[in-house]
Amino acid sequence: MIIVDEQPLHLPAIGAVLEAAFGRADEARLVERLRADRALVLSLAAIEDDAVIGHVAFSAMRAPFRALGLGPVAVAPARQRSGVGRSLIGEGLARARAAGWEAVFVLGDPSYYRRFGFSVEDAAGFTSPYAGPHFMALALGGPRLPASTGPVEYAPAFGAFS
């Protein structure tokens, strides 16, 4: 398996993986909208035997510092629980850190995202429509976020799918 920046030839397969992984088209439409709005900062595809088997999106957020929103993450059902999602997220976080982003926020299962260093506690001081027990943050530039409070907004495309 290799992880690459998405290319135009990958787009139909990325959409298919998103639909298969979530069992609906909402997340595929969200990624299409993020792409159309030029809100995607990182859009990575996991490729195996010339086929897309996974995808992860990182989009720009409004926050008191340079932050990205992680999601959606999708892996083809036949390849779930085999490390594809972990590899995609890890590569995306490494690229975000190297590009000077200061933090990443995610809405998801804390037991899964804690393995990457995400913390519900670190996100607790921020105001967001998604605030709560599944809203997490990860500092990329050091052990702490540059601020601990303030408004955090995902790209506008998320509003159509919340």
Count of discrete alpha- or pi-helical segments spanning 4 or more residues: 5
Strand count:
8
Q: What characteristic shape results from the CA principal axes? A: globular
- Which series of helices and strands comes N to C? EHHEEEHEHHEEE
Name given to the CATH architecture: 3-Layer(aba) Sandwich
Quickly count the domains. 1
Specify the structural class: alpha/beta
What are its keywords?
Aminopeptidase, two-stranded parallel sheet, alpha/beta, 6-stranded mixed beta sheet, 162 residues, single chain
Structure report:
28% of the residues lie in helices and 29% in strands. The mean pLDDT is 96. The strands form 2 sheets. The protein has a 6-stranded mixed β-sheet. The protein has a two-stranded parallel sheet with strand order 6-8. The chain has a single domain, classed as Aminopeptidase, CATH 3.40.630.30. The protein has 162 residues and is α/β, with parallel strands linked by helices.
